[in-house]
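Entry 14. Structure prediction run on the chain below.
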Amino acid sequence: MLNLASPALRSGVVASLIEERIRILVRCHEIELSLGNHSAVVPELRQLSNEFPDNERLSAQLMESLYRTGRQGEALSAYQQISGHLRETFGIDPGPELQQLHLSIVRGEDLAGGRYASAPAPLAEWVDAGEAARTELPARLGDFLGRTCETDEIESIIGRKGGRVLVLCGLPGVGKTVLAVHVAHRLRSRFPGGVHFVQAGGSAALSGISTQRESLVVLDDVRHIDQVRPVVDSGGSGAVIITSRRSLADIVLRHGAALYRIGSWRRTDSVSFLTSTLGSERASSGGAHLEQLAETCDDHPMALRLAAMRISLRPQQNVSEAMRGRPAAGYPGDPLASAFEDYLSSLTPVARTALRSISAAGSETLSGRESADVLQESDDRVSALLDELVESCAVEHIAGGRYRIPRILRDHVNQFSGRPSP
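Output returned:
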């Protein structure tokens, strides 16, 4: 190339060849990642990301490969590297697809679908389509921990003969998807028809999906009953695990589905996560601060992941310094705060108002009578509102006939109470 007479031509040809080389490299790594060779491609992707620091697709593949091998902190550091470079060099933020990948990694979600995810796309229609249409589960989260009792109980429910439907519900960020995928991986040998994953999200309805032929289907992030009615109505000898922020009571009542609500981690699991993520040396220097941090975060998995990321990006500060003055749910626009705002917007206006009023009362728990005093409503009206909030996973019904709002949600609601209702 250096022998070309025209500098302009030489420059144009070289630029074109570089672009073609990048395109081929990206495609090759897409294939490697889809085959599960996540660890093997990390060294080359690191080198390429340094060689082409402007290329978001290479950085995304590096982030994905690190995350899929259980190196969440390094994946987040890779994002900070390209984000800082783009801001410093061009004054811009990464594109929306890379930002979404970053958000998924922060949340500890499974990378299924999306522009940069190399796992096969979520299932659209596989009935009578044979082997070629089977969709692999997302990879297990590398740092999955705890949930032993929950795993055993869910496996017991799904392991029963006949049509089985389980609704796995809970607040945003508690790890519903991670747990569902973990269980599905453990159970896959029991389902000769295959194990399949469908990201429901904003889909109007999921058609063409059934549980025939001893299949297990994971329907993730179901927002309303109509999305999954065709699936649970299809019958068959397979099983369905539905993850949702709501209890989807109609499916439980009309189809005999089992309902399983999960909450935050146990304290020992929270501390184990922080220790493994921050490293034993950093964790040991944190001492009692790790327990305090777990308490502050209400043992909420996503809140703890965000806290661990913040601490990891501040190696010169100790645990307490890195988190000083930082709300557990973050500031407006942060991943968990945004997830909670999206969740609150799905509540009815009257339920949202009731939740804000009860949160502002400042009590850890309230009885029905105390809630009625706070809301200035009749007992019957308050009972209906509390039932709606319990079904929406915003409130827990606990011993003694009392009600509890998870503290991290309560803190978020109080922090944002002065903002306009979504």
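The chain has four domains: 8-107, 131-261, 267-323, 335-415.
Filed with the rest of this week's runs.
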